[in-house]
Design brief:
By secondary structure, the chain is α+β, with helices and mostly antiparallel strands. The chain contains two helices and five strands. The mean pLDDT is 90. Bound molecules: zinc ion.
Length: 188
């Protein structure tokens, strides 16, 4: 059996003088319960608090977790940004379609107005004149009602997309804030 030498070391936490066997590799202070690793170098024996090691380990784990979280968040960000772009495009396409229908209706009204002016310059028999006037008036009324319908549809389309677009926009903001926080954590 090897000879056991007793060495005296101070507890790193409460400074109590501790007599311990040099064969131990761990020692718990019997005054304050702090756990130490008994280490040895050219200067002799010394204590290292195990909690500190744990603290470092926790930091490393935290860093690793932060880096993983950043990856996951960046992937979420890509997905949400893509959803946002797809939805904006869908909305823009619908709005463009409505805009082109509205501009068609306006053109038709202008054509009808020009036709009405032309009819006035020609001396048509009364019946033909009345029928032509009626057609012009009906065309105008119909196109005006179309324009008003299109306007309502434009509002509905904007309202339909707004909440979802806002929700995705908020999500993107939250994800970006989370990424910035995690980057800080990973860099610490
Ligand atoms: Zn102690």
């Amino acid at each position: 059996m090897e000879n056991v030498t007793l060495i005296t070391l101070k507890c790193s936490n409460c400074s109590a003088s501790l007599q311990i066997s040099d064969k131990l590799d761990r020692y718990i202070c019997n005054y304050c319960g702090t756990e130490h690793a008994l280490l040895h170098n050219s200067g002799g024996f010394y204590f290292r608090r195990l909690e500190e090691k744990l603290d470092n380990l926790e930091k490393i784990t935290e860093k690793g977790n932060a880096e993983l979280a950043i990856k996951r968040l960046r992937s979420d960000l890509t997905t949400r940004t893509h959803q946002y772009e797809v939805m904006i495009k869908e909305k823009d396409d619908l709005m463009r379609l409505l805009e082109s229908r509205r501009s068609d209706a306006v053109s038709t009204i202008i054509v009808a107005a020009v036709a009405q002016a032309a009819i006035l310059t020609v001396n048509f028999p009364l019946q033909i004149y009345s029928a032509a006037q009626l057609a012009v008036v009906f065309t105008m009324i119909y196109q005006l009602s179309q324009i008003s319908k299109i306007q309502t549809e434009r509002q509905k389309t904007a309202e339909k997309f707004r909440p979802e677009l806002e929700r995705i926009r908020d999500d993107i903001d939250v994800i970006e804030i989370k990424i910035r926080k995690k980057i800080k954590l990973a860099d610490s």
